[in-house]
């Protein structure tokens, strides 16, 4: 990575580096970026892996922490990190990633900055074998069965929804059940206009109420949701704002809602959790496990080739 940056920046970068007087492991220095499309290059020296018994973790934490402090001092709004020490220095990629995520996450709880971790290969972003197996088993139990049942079983399940949902089996195509007659737009004697006048609180209003209920600052919640301040500001200032499903669920995770609360919350943005979606089943798994670490959830979603939560 060091060689790639120097080749892209040009020989002027090396010339400035020679004036810095070196850099100790875990420390950080900064230079201009020269031919790179950014303002600065932050230089840090990561630890060489020697089995983890020689302070490697503390030194790696220092690399990220001092880099972020230096970036803040120079008023940087965005920083991109490679996975420090995970190349020729031999730091195990999964452990290096966890140190990066934890250290950066701790910094962002107190500071506003967009931070990227640039992963060279998929091996750096793999969850543990046991967790993968547990999630895979949960998906098998709650997702596969939903997609392997017969047409007759699906029709039977639809019929169990109640007498109000009458199904004409003979008239239905293979992929669905057709209603016998149009449904009237009224419930319990109320007209559609009456219902529209009595709408529940929308997503934005509900989000703010739930944040107030936690007693936490707005910044604590949107950072825990892996959502940036600008997006949160849009949601906060627009009562009719419709977030993406990933954003809505990210806030549910940050608020540590249970499964029923999550379903109600995301429904206010027009979404639902479905057993026909691997993404949804994985989210359900983590909520049932009461694991509300958005980064751990994203690692699992990535492992199963699903979209990630937050920004």
Description:
- The chain has 14 helices and eight strands.
- The protein has 311 residues and is mostly helical.
- The strands form four sheets. Strands 1-2 form a two-stranded antiparallel sheet. It has a two-stranded parallel ribbon with strand order 3-4. The chain has a two-stranded antiparallel sheet with strand order 5-6.
- The radius of gyration is 25 Å and the shape is globular.
- Residues 162-188 have low confidence and may be disordered.
* Number of helices, where a helix is a run of at least 4 consecutive DSSP H or I residues: 14
Strand order of the largest sheet: 1-2
Radius of gyration, whole Å: 25 Å
Q: What class would the helix/strand composition place it in?
A: mainly alpha
Low-confidence parts? 162-188
Q: How would a textbook summarize the main sheet?
A: 2 strands, antiparallel
Beta-strand percentage?
5-15%
Number of distinct beta strands: 8
């Amino acid at each position: 990575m060091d060689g790639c940056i120097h080749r892209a920046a040009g020989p002027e970068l090396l010339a400035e580096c020679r004036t810095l007087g070196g850099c100790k492991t875990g420390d950080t220095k900064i230079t201009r970026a020269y031919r790179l499309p950014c303002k600065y290059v932050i230089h840090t020296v990561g630890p060489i892996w020697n089995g983890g018994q020689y302070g490697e973790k503390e030194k790696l934490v220092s690399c990220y922490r001092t880099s972020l402090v230096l970036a803040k001092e120079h008023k940087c709004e965005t920083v991109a990190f490679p996975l420090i020490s995970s190349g020729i220095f031999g730091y195990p990629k999964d452990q290096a990633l966890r140190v990066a995520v934890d250290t950066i996450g701790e910094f962002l709880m107190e500071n506003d900055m967009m931070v990227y971790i640039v992963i060279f290969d998929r091996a750096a972003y793999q969850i543990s074998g046991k967790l993968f197996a547990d999630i895979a088993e949960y998906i098998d139990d709650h997702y596969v069965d939903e997609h392997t049942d017969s047409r007759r079983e699906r029709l039977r399940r639809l019929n169990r929804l109640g007498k109000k949902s009458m199904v004409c089996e003979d008239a239905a195509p293979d992929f669905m059940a057709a209603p016998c007659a149009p449904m009237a737009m009224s419930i319990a004697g109320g007209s559609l206009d009456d219902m529209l006048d009595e709408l529940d609180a929308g997503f934005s209003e509900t989000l703010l109420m739930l944040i107030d209920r936690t007693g936490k600052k707005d910044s604590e919640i949107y950072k825990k949701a892996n959502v940036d301040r600008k997006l949160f500001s849009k949601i906060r200032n627009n009562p009719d704002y419709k977030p993406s499903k990933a954003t809505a669920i990210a806030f549910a995770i940050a608020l540590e809602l249970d499964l029923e609360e999550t379903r109600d919350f995301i429904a206010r943005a027009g979404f639902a959790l479905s057993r026909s979606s691997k993404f949804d089943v994985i989210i359900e798994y983590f909520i049932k496990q009461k694991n509300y670490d958005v980064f751990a959830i994203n690692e699992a979603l990535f492992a199963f080739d699903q979209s990630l939560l937050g920004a």
